[in-house]
Specification:
Layout lengths: L1 E6 L13 E6 L2 E5 L5 H5 L10 E3 L5 H4 L1 H10 L10 E5 L3 H9 L8 H4 E5 L3 E5 L2 E7 L7 E7 L2 E5 L7 H6 L5 E5 L16 H11 L4 E4 L7 H9 L6 E3 L5 E3 L1
Parallel strand pairs: 3-4, 4-5, 5-6, 10-11, 11-12, 12-13
Antiparallel strand pairs: 1-2, 1-14, 2-3, 7-8, 8-9, 9-10
Helix pairs in contact: 7-8
């Protein structure tokens, strides 16, 4: 698998990065995890506008899904050959309604489904292209799913947004790469079931025996170096910060 960080800023875009979006590729198949603010523009550095094969939305907060409205425009009003065929979109209950409301003036209440083939995510195991994926609900104020992606004996886990969660521990079990949010600062913010801090992300990786930890979803007002140092105090494996345009071979 190849993972590309399209955007990794938390809550709102920074001067350097769009919000959450990650491209996963294998066997010529392109799966996008989330499409937050600014992600659609940055995505076009890495693949063609119409070259995605499927999209997974961890949850329906704007910093993880709002550029789907812009992508709707690109697919619905395509100028070089007519409207695009529907692409599979996997998201929580109510994804189509949420995006339709966010767009505000789609041609009809069903226009989104003309270019997006919506599938409701629940805890379980299913296939997306060549990937076997396992999803489970994690600890966030809205329905949110972490995802474990397996291909050719390798595993990538993406946390979505979450506080400390037994479900996330299991999704990250023995993962070759654990892409984990670390939005809060240890000792500063303490809001249960909202976000992890750097130390908690490291503790999660340690409990799960993950092989590599990449911290993401760090907002512009949070010092990423503090979160990185905090994670390293509790996790002995390789730890680094997600940065836009970086790629990983898994």
């Amino acid at each position: 698998m190849k993972l590309t960080v399209v955007g990794c800023s938390g809550s709102f875009p920074s001067a350097e990065s769009a919000c959450s979006s990650y491209l996963v590729e294998a066997d010529g198949f392109r799966l996008l995890l989330d499409m937050g603010n600014g992600a659609l523009g940055e995505l076009q550095r890495h693949c063609g506008l119409y070259d995605l094969d499927a999209i997974f939305l961890s949850h329906l907060h704007a910093d993880h899904c709002i550029d789907m409205c812009a992508y709707f425009v690109a697919r619905y009003y395509r100028h070089d050959g007519g409207r695009c065929a529907p692409i599979p979109v996997f998201g929580p209950e109510g994804t189509e309604h949420r995006l339709t409301i966010a767009y505000a003036d789609t041609p009809s209440h069903s226009s989104m489904s003309e270019v997006f083939d919506f599938h409701t995510v629940k805890p379980g195991t299913f296939d997306i292209g060549p990937f076997t994926v396992h999803t489970d609900q994690v600890a966030h104020p809205v329905e949110t799913y972490g995802i474990r992606i397996e291909h050719d004996g390798k595993t990538l886990t993406y946390s979505g947004d979450t506080g400390v969660s037994d479900a996330l521990d299991e999704l990250a079990r023995d993962a070759d790469l654990f892409l984990c949010e670390a939005a809060f600062t240890y000792g500063k913010e303490n809001i249960p079931d909202l976000h992890l801090n750097g130390r908690e992300a490291g503790e999660t990786a340690a409990r799960a025996h993950a092989r590599r930890l990449v911290l993401t979803h760090i907002p512009p007002w949070t010092d990423p170096q503090v979160n990185l140092a905090d994670a390293r105090t509790v996790f002995d494996g390789p730890v680094e910060l997600a940065v836009p345009r970086k790629t990983y071979e898994i």
